[in-house]
Amino acid sequence: MSGSLQVTQKQQLHQQLEKQQQKHHYESSYYLSTKSSVSKQAFSTHKTTSHRLKTSVKTEKGQEGVKLSPLPKRAKHTYLAMDKDKEIIGYVIPVFRANHDVVRGLVDAQEEDVTEEGINYVAMRNLFVREARESMEVKVEKKTRTKHVRESADRLQLGKQMEEWSEFRKKMNPDSLTHPPELIVKPRGQTVWEGKTVKLHCTVAGWPKPRVAWYKNNVLIDAKAHSEKYTTESNYNMHSLEIKNCDFLDTAKYHISALNIKGEVSSVATIVVKRFQEGVEEGPLDPKPHGFCPEHGVTFETTIIDKFDVAFGHEGETLSLGCTVIIYPTVKKYQPEVMWYRNSVPLKPSKWVHTHWSGERAMLTLTHLNKEDEGMYTLRVNTKSGFDTHSAYVFVKDADVEVEGLPVAPLDVKCHDANKDYVVVTWKQPAVEGSSPILGYYIDRCEVGTHHWAQCNDTPVKYARFPVTGLVEGRSYVFRVRALNKTGVSRPSRVSEAVVAMDPSDRARLRAGPSAPWTGMIKFTEEDSTVGVVPGEPTDVVVTEATKSYVVLAWKPPVQRGHEGVMYYIEKCISGTDTWQRVNTGMPVKSPRFALFDLAEGKSYNFRVRCCNSAGVGEPSETTGEITVGDKLDLPSAPGAPVPTRNTGTSVVVFWGASKDVTHLVGYYIEHSVVGTDVWMPCNNKPVKQTRFVCHGLTTGLNYVFRVKAVNAAGYSQSSPISDAVVVQPAISVPRKPTDVTLLEAVKDYMLVGWTAPADNGGADIRGYFVDYRTVKGNSFGKWHEMNHQALTTTSYKAENMKENVFYQFRVCAMNMAGVSKHSLPSAAVECKEWTITVPGTPVGLHVLEVRDNSVVVLWEPPVFEGRSPVNGYYLDIKEASAGEDGWKAVHEKTNKGKYMKVTGLKAGTSYVFRLRAQNLAGVGKPSAVLGPILAQTRPGTKEIYVDVDDNGVISMVFECSEMNEDSKFIWSKNYKEITDTSRLTIITEGSKSRAMFNSPSLEDLGTFSCVVTNTDGFSSSYTLTEEGLMRLLDMSHEHKFPVIPFKSEMAMDLLEKGRVRFWTQLEKFTSACQVEYVFNDAIVEQGKKYTMNFDKTTGIIEMFMDSLEVTDEGTFTFNLVDGKAKGTTSLVLIGDEFRELQKKSEFERAEWVRKQGPHFVEYLNFTVTPECDVLLKCKIGNIKAATEITWFKDSIEITEDDEEAQKIERKDGELIFNIGKISKHDAGIYEVHLRDERGKDKSSFNLTEAGYQAVMNELFRVIANSSSEIQVVSTEHGIILYSMITYYDENLRVGWLYKDAKIAASERVKSGVTEEQLWLKINEPTEKDKGKYTMDIFDGKDGVKRVIDLTGKAWEEAFEEFQRLKAAAIAERNRARVVGGLPDVVAIQEGKSLNLTGNVWGDPVPEVCWMKNEKELLSDDHYKLKFEHGKFASITIAAVTTADSGKYSLVVKNKYGKEAGEFTVSVYNPEEEEKKDEKKD
Fold first, then answer.
1. Biggest alpha carbon–alpha carbon distance for the chain
2. Which of 730, 733, 895, 1030 is the most buried (most CB within 10 A)?
3. Of 162, 146, 64, 80, which Cα lies nearest the Cα of 119?
């Protein structure tokens, strides 16, 4: 609807609706879903959409309107669906798609936007009033009883709907009073199969809108943190919790809690996860049955293509694995769940593991590979119908060692049994020990957040397990391990996961999380104080580990230990003595674990533990009994002899017997060696526990032997016996079953059956086929019978002596040297009766060759049954494998008369399927069986046919294949028919390369040549020889038969010093027998005074030199070469203007050479401007002696040593400099430098007038402009100043200021100027109008340099705020109350006299005045008379002063801007007392 109707009265509503119907007829989408569809899909996990057919109808005005198809009448009520413009677009089941945030507070609920629910209410009210109106419409018509009963039922249903709607409105109406949350629909408990996805739903009402959270066994579910497991969605008051890939641990009580300011409500549902079968527990990657998905009404079929293969990487590299996943059928907005596993353990994203799912492509990226990343990787794709998987092994090789012979890094470092100050570190030994056995390991630790690694053990430990002590409680640590042998120390391993040094009970409490949902309650338990009580003795003291290097003790804390906690002392006693010695005398330990080092190997000890706290040390525990120091864990025994068997062209399967009587086995390392080399290389760099391993990465055709060694924490076992040698070749297996068994032709008493050969022949040629048949009558099937006792060599069979009008089924199996394959799927039941169809049957034998990223070649055989007339062409269809039946499209428009076709334009990485139809004069037959899916991807290692022309001119085609086996052969074809006639081609095969040589190439050889390698995975290629290509090859053949010496560069000419001329060329390919003939104008020239020749056979450069060019040298210069039967010629023509120009240049170069024999200028006089803006005239001189005279002139007047300007001249490092300094017009003139000695003279000048002077000034302006700083902002009491600093300012420099790109006109308020090296713009009394972009444009001799500042936002606010502050401070300083004068510093007065002092005061407003004596305020009385007159003069009069009036006085003035005190000292003296003091002194 295009607006919300306001409901006032039913009659008014009725009139409005009638008006609406006269214009356009819209039907509400309230009935979009039928009752059955609502009941089935009410709790769907995906959005449900409904579609209605639209028909065009004519309205009363004759306009075309839109009429929706009839709506069902019994739909259940749901929520109104609205678009972004708040218009009703449907009334459908809400979509669960938004994650719900965790509850953040009750107050937020009051601030929720009420608009959406308000519109929901109005729209719903309009909807149901309209339904009520429609129900009250009176229509006079004749009705049958059946119709009357049906309408009565509809009215009852409508009444029920109205009641439901009324009740619903009360709950959802935002206009009513607030009310607490209420669960309209509660979540229901469910029982599901393991591996499935389950979803809990509920509907919550309440106002304000309640906040909702989900809990599992009273623990809050954080769906964002565990998105791979949980998804929570909320929409239109409908809430859901989705639990993916359920396992046994998901069996729990789940409850939802809803909360708003009016109250809280919750509900519980139990989820029970059942396994598929009892007995042996299925792994997470074992296939489970697929089934129909009622939620979407389909059965999802998963196809994994473009699969990742066995991969190899080196430590430190990045490796990516990927597959293309096709889900059929495609359901809108439905995506499968994609999970990755390593060795059947799910992988979680981390800094080492990144996963990506694009909707079609699943990618796993392993960043910075380590040996821990080695293993079997599995991609699992979960759908609503089941799941599919693909697995392949990833091998990680060790990084190159820095020094030959070093061991490689250990792996799989883990931390166990972490306590307050103790942790056990374990690791696995590497596969390669280096040039000598590993002597031990060093363990390093690093505190999280730092980069400092500290070594934990001074002596290397042999045992792959070490207790680390001395940790600081509450801090986190990571660990790494390094191996040591005689050569040195290995690289460190990958660091362990971080571990916190803390009490295990505290760690368990932290992991538990909150114990109850929503409301928290803190319980206080008062216990009897145990402070001051000595703790009891520990219990259960045992030795958990004992090696030659250390012994680990463990015990349980005492029951009586008080609130302050306890620490422990460990004591030891040598067996046979009674002397107990405390081990940790310096500091007691906090953890109930302790590692003892430095024990004597072979001796027996007793151990015991004491507890201590502030009250004292407790009684000792019971002793452990005698413990002998030594390794409890023995080295594993050698495994049994390995047995290798062939697997593929690059892998071998190795079996071996398990080590006997081994404890704590870590795994096995397998090594291989090429027979005769005695060099052993590891097959795996991470130990494996099973006794079977596939060794990949081997070289096809080589002989290998294998050996195995076991490893546990104690070290390596002895190597097993060496296996028998095995050649790496693909194992021969039975072929796959044939496919597409179809009926090709039928007559009264025989039937012709055809099928498609197996996609994989098992590594050996198919030797034949066997056909079985059985009769079919309705749903009753007979027994299978063999039709042929001898194997068939073709893919068709004529079944004779069949009964007419009887239905039969056929199946086929293939046979090779390894055995018989499984039977194919039975064909469809076909009747034995004569065909009367006129069109041809289905083509057979479809297969592909030359599969590439963008193309593929499809081949076929003609149908056995041709119809009424012969087949005259074929049509090939293609579609993407994931597309539906509507996706088929023709590859070509015109019929293809051949039996092959190259399909181009494919998308790399996409799978396609093909089908073919035959045509005759009667029409086009049925399509063949579908071929595919075929993945458009070039197989790694594929090479193309290339054409080669040898030195004798023989043209040949060459094809190489790297994956051949003993039975593989090269099959050459022309136009995809095998070549049997050798008159045109000679085929030679050597190893993995085959060459087809043309005997006498001609137009008869045009066509497509292809080569297929049998018993491989489709290695093939083709080459199309066109007429143009043949001509090019014939030309190349002629060049090889009659070769030409190739030139790297043709003859060229260089002008050298003294005006000499050099003619030269360079050969690309030649022999030492190559000879050169030098020719000028058809005359051979010889070496002499005029010509000099040189042929450098190391570089192939041929040179001829001439001292000068004369008039007679105009003409053609040529080099003729002969090298065996190869010849070559190169020439250079010098005539006319070109020759004369070269002659002038030669003469000039000779004159320059003569000039440079004496003193001369290397660089002539020119100018430069320094960054300090000094102008320098500079020139470089050469060939100078001490006697050379250097003279400077200005305006033809010599600058002598006595001249002031002579101080500006300096010479250094062959350079003359005249430092003008800061230039002015006084410096204009013509400057010259003269050089002279007995060898010659030279001079250089620079005109520093007019254009020269202007060029210098422009360069000066450029330096000044580029030295300007970015515009800065400073605020003053008068306004804001924008300024930029420059190195130097010249009065001729043009500087302009712009505001918003418009020039600023000078005014009293806005001024610009220069102060020394500062360019400024002053804005007095700025206002908001002065905000904006300011630009300073400095002329730089060309376009100008701009400096821009955006005086808006924070920059404006800070500047304007500072201006206001400074202005206020200035006003305050001017008007501050002050004592400006009139008061002395000291007053001495005789006792009995009167003192009168007056102070001058200033302040605006007039300040308050008070007088202080000794920091106490004086009040006016008979003794002190205080006056303040005219607001400026403050006076004090002290009548008849006494000695008591002596002291420190101050005049204090104060107003709103400040306060000040004028201080002075009054000293009152008595003359008589002074005289007495003086007499005493005398």
1. 170
2. 730
3. 80
Structure tokens given for 833: 């009766």
Candidates 746, 745, 744, 749; CA nearest to 804 is: 749
CB-facing half-sphere around the CA of 169: CA atoms within 13 A: 17
Alpha helices in 1274-1349 (DSSP H): none
C-alpha 1464/C-alpha 1342 separation (Å) is 69
For the full predicted model, state whether its pTM sits above 0.70: no
Asked whether the beta carbons of 1067 and 1100 are under 8 A apart, the reply is yes
* Four-residue CA torsion sign, 312, 313, 314, 315: negative
Of 1286, 1276, 1403, give the one whose Cα is nearest residue 1338: 1286
Read off the DSSP letter of residue 794. Answer: S
What's the rounded Cα separation, in Å, for the pair 1394 and 1438? 6
Under 8 Å between Cβ of 439 and 484 = yes
Between β-strands 190-193 and 263-274, what pairing exists: parallel, antiparallel or unpaired?
A: parallel
Q: Please provide residue 1032's backbone torsions phi and psi, each rounded to the nearest 5 degrees.
A: -65, -40
Query: What mean pLDDT is predicted for residues 219-235?
Result: 86
Measure the CA–CA gap between 316 and 371, rounded to whole angstroms: 10
Among residues 4, 299, 254, 251, which one has the least CA distance to residue 126?
Answer: 4
Count the Cβ atoms, other than its own, within 10 Å of residue 57: 11
What does the pLDDT look like over 759-793, one tens digit per residue? 888 878 888 999 999 999 888 899 999 988 888 88
Residues 703 and 1363: their CA atoms lie apart, in Å, by: 89
CA distance 381 to 337: 6
Separation CA 676–CA 16 (nearest Å) = 100
Residues 1312-1337 have a mean pLDDT of 90
C-alpha pair distances (Å), 368 with each of 353, 399, 1064:
9, 11, 55
Residue (of 824, 796, 817, 860) closest to 738 by Cα position? 824
1164-1169: long-range contacts at Cβ-Cβ below 8 A with a sequence spacing of 24 or more? 1164/1244, 1165/1231, 1165/1232, 1165/1233, 1165/1244, 1165/1245, 1165/1246, 1166/1246, 1167/1246, 1167/1248, 1167/1255, 1167/1256, 1167/1259, 1168/1259, 1169/1256, 1169/1259, 1169/1260, 1169/1262, 1169/1263
Tell me how many degrees the CA angle 981-987-990 measures, rounded to the nearest 5: 155
Q: How far apart are CA 1390 and CA 429, in angstroms?
A: 105
Complete edge-to-edge strand list for the sheet that includes strand 422-428: 411-416, 422-428, 465-469
Please answer whether residues 365 and 371 qualify as being in contact, where contact means their C-beta atoms are separated by less than 8 angstroms: no
**Helices and strands, number each (H, E), in the chain:** 11, 103
Supply the pLDDT for residue 495. 92
Q: How far apart are CA 561 and CA 538, in angstroms?
A: 10
- Enumerate residues 6+ apart whose C-beta is below 8 A from 1322: 1278, 1279, 1280, 1281, 1310, 1311, 1312, 1313
How far is it, in rounded angstroms, from Cα 856 to Cα 1324? 80
H or E, element range at 110 = helix 107-110
**Residue 668 CB neighbour total at 10 angstroms:** 25
The dihedral built from the CA positions of residue 940, 941, 947 and 951, taken in this order, carries a sign that is positive
β partners of residue 859: 847, 900
Quick count: other Cβ atoms within 10 Å of Cβ 13?
18
More confident call, 21 vs 456: 456
1131-1149 pLDDT, tens digit each? 988 888 888 888 888 888 8
Report CA 232 to chain centroid distance, whole Å: 26
Q: Which helix (H) or strand (E) holds 146?
A: helix 145-172
User: Coil, strand, or helix at residue 1131?
Assistant: strand
Q: Given a cut of 90, is residue 415 above it in pLDDT?
A: yes
**707 backbone dihedrals φ, ψ, rounded to 5°:** -145, 160
